[in-house]
Amino acid sequence: MKPHRGEEAGLVMSSKQPIPIPANPELPGMPVEKRVCSAEFHLSILQTAGRSDYSDFCGMSLEEFVDFTADLGMEIWYGGLGPGVGRSSALLHSTHLDVAQMRSVPGQPPPDFESRYVERAHRHGILVIGSYKMNAWPALAKLHPEWLIQDIDDGRDVKPNEHFVCYNSPFGEWLGDYLAEQVKQFELDGVWFDDSQYGSRGAWPWPAGCVCDACAQKYKQDTGQELPPKVDMSCIEFKKWVDWRYDNLAEFQADLARRVREVNPNAIVNYNSYPRPNLPWTSANDLNPIRDDLQFFIETDYKLLGPTLTAKIARARGDCEIWFFMPEQIGRTMGTEQPPHLDPVFSTLPSLAALAHGVRTQSVVDYLRPDSGQMKFTYDELKKRRPWFGGESIRQCALHLSRRTRDFIYTPFLDEADPSADVLGQSAVSMKAGDTYWKQFVGVAEMLEQKHVIYDMLFDKQIDADSLASYRILVLPNSACLSEPQCSAIRDWVAAGGTLIADYETSLYDELGVKRSNFGLADVFGVDWIGTYNAGGQSGTLYVPQGDLKGKYGQWLGFCGQHTEIRPRESEDLDVLYTLSVRRGFALTDPAKDTHDSGHPGVVEHAWGKGKSIYISGDVGEGFCDHPLQRVREFFVDLVKRGGLRVEVSCPSRVLVHALYGEQGTLHVHLYHRFCQMTPWERHHIDSQQWSALDEPFPVHDIQVTVAGGGIKHARMPLRDLDLEVENATTIYVPEVYLHDVVEVTGTV
Questions:
Q1: pLDDT band for position 289 (cuts 50, 70, 90)
Q2: Which structural domain, as residue segments, surrounds residue 342?
Q3: What are the CA-CA distances from residue 589 to residues 14, 583, 595, 597, 631 (Å)?
Q4: What does DSSP say about strands 127-133 and 76-78: parallel, antiparallel, or unpaired?
Q5: Within this chain, do residues 319 and 358 fall inside the same structural domain, yes or no?
Q6: Which is nearest to 41 in space by CA: 115, 137, 121?
Q7: What's the CA gap between 251 and 254, in Å, rounded?
Q8: What pLDDT, on a 0 to 100 scale, did the predictor assign at position 587?
Q9: Domain end residue (candidates: 392, 407, 438)
Q10: Number of domains in the chain
Q11: Pair 289, 143 in one domain
């Protein structure tokens, strides 16, 4: 099949041909969870240069412009209408306006601007979502300085807060009233929030906030305790306050959603969330499942996470979308780091990665031009795949992302912050300690992705009996902080037949980061903790393969990660797979010498009940993140596969894989291209992954999909209307994948 290039796909459009209304009669009744074409967009950006009357958008009237966006395929529109939905919103957010100026501001849209836009969009079935800041209201703060967030003392000279107001103050009630009025007045389909963190932005990393009188009263009411006076991660009571902040923020966001839905029961209420590297506990955005009444979007950090891992976090949290730049439309003129004029096909890949995981996307397209069809190309590709959007997990493998480990073990030291880091946290890595945990996690996730191990993500609150049930494999990438109930749930799950893969200091600390004298899971691992070698140092881990493993890996295998030193327990069910070398680094190593093998265990497999545990002493995730070596990837994934996979895929790592059960019990295997290659964490240029995506995509041929159990009756590629060859009711042969294809499998799978 010849790949479609963007230029061959009809990307140039006329801007002067309003389309019939309604453009898509299926949209008005389509549920939100099936709408896949969304954008954050601000109409004020499209004013013709030198005009301020909101009458001309790139040569089109307002109505023509809305028709144009509908023709592109827009289904949900997140954004401010002009400077903001309702002139009061824009004024109250303005940094420069005082109270006297709030009555008359030049360049405001005409009085009927919002109603004309919303009415026209609704004719097309487009949902209109008003955008706001959740707690950044500078002009309002001038009226009520007593509502300002008061940042907790963290030992730094923090810029005085003049913009961010505290939702535990009367501001929270005011905001609920204001939003309800806006939704009712303009017939909005929902509201959308940026700036949804807990504190101000008076320094980088952002201060933690808030110790105002209202917060003190709320904390006392909820816990019976006084607010802590300063940041102190050595104090248990302070850590309990850190945990409380997450729940307090979620409680307010749920209450705000309730207030909006009293006016419009079906309203979308969507908050920006920040679960990514560079943004630690201070923002109070949790890494746990969200409440059923909340919705979030997560910004894609291209350089460190990428769209696939962001989509997995979004799916695991619940009703979340991922948010990304549509790079073909923007460049450095917008103040971002995205390269301008990226190939239209590659610009579509983040959306396809999200769709493969059953996750909706928002894109930022503030530089939409009538002579470009980037959005139309992307939206056409998404809509083709709508019938295969979503589904249930195959529950094969679970990967733990531990917020408590990030918060309490790898807490960023503020004096290590990079003073040159961008205030929004989008530039180079700025906090060494906090990055270490993310490297451990991302390195393990990357190895699973590159070797096509289909997995789901689990958070701290999901390490329990109900969430673990029916998974075959659980991977704990240095899940250092585990409570006794969590250890008990894991212990019972392994005994019932699960396979546990854990590394480094997993379970060495309790849920608040208090160090134990031994692993909490020592009995399951079959080993005791003696110590951690050169924690935080720069040495590496050298393993000596034992038995049959020597035939595959030779005399030694190494990676640049630290390791623990362990003592095996007496057990007939313990098998030492790798031992530690006597060497602690890689220089001048002679693995042929008999003294190379220390005999001390490094990787062990231990039978526990009906299941088994594989413990890896080395910090393999960080090692792979710094040096993504093929041998390390093979070593780790070979251990994971000992748990038995339901679905295995053989193809190059350029293609990624996810699988979900469809509504009719069919298995949908999604095969899609990576947006960009992985680059070593510590050695990335600020644009490295973005620029690596400038290459032309190409088809990948002869992919093999194997489903355990032998129950395949039929397999086809519905997007190509192509029946596939099936061998022995287990193995499917896929001739080619270009951007994203679905293999639909029927039978007892």
A1: very high
A2: 6-392
A3: 66, 7, 11, 12, 18
A4: parallel
A5: yes
A6: 121
A7: 5
A8: 63
A9: 392
A10: 3
A11: yes
